[in-house]
Amino acid sequence: MSGRTRARARPERTCVGCRERSDKSALLRVVLVEGRCVPDRRGTLPGRGAYLHPTPTCVDLAVRRRAFQRAFRAPGTLDTAELQQAVPRATP
């Protein structure tokens, strides 16, 4: 045996909400479109992307910490309403 493994490398990204590293496929890509944070489920929209776990907790943390402004290098406040509607809320 040559010592090589057959496991493929999988890209990892950091969630801007909780700051944990996860597989890229487990995270939701978010892009900035005209001052709005838009979920990019297919990963094909142009521009800088920020990655986020698709959970309400991570979305709330990212909004509270102003993580999207830092990730997109954008001044001022960003509209996150569309993103918050796209992430399902847990019903008790």
What does this structure look like?
It is a single chain. The chain has 92 residues and is α+β, with helices and mostly antiparallel strands. Helix content is 24%, strand content 23%. The chain has 3 helices and 5 strands, in the order E-E-E-E-E-H-H-H. A 3-stranded antiparallel beta sheet has the order 4-3-5. It has a two-stranded antiparallel ribbon with strand order 1-2. Strand 3 (28-33) and strand 4 form a beta hairpin. The longest helix has 10 residues, at 56-65. The chain starts with 11 loop residues before the first strand and ends in a 6-residue tail after the last helix.
Query: Strand order, biggest sheet?
Result: 4-3-5
- What is the H/E string? EEEEEHHH
Backbone structural class: alpha+beta
Average pLDDT over all residues: 90
Percentage of helical residues?
10-25%
- Portion of residues in beta strands equals 15-25%
Distinct helical segment count: 3
Find the count of extended strands (DSSP E, 2+ residues): 5
Task: Give the low-confidence spans.
Answer: none
Rounded to the nearest angstrom, the distance between the terminal CA atoms is 53 Å
Largest sheet: 3 strands, antiparallel
**Molecular shape:** elongated
The whole-angstrom Rg is 15 Å
Domain YlxR: 13-77
Protein name: YlxR family protein
Organism: Streptomyces glaucosporus
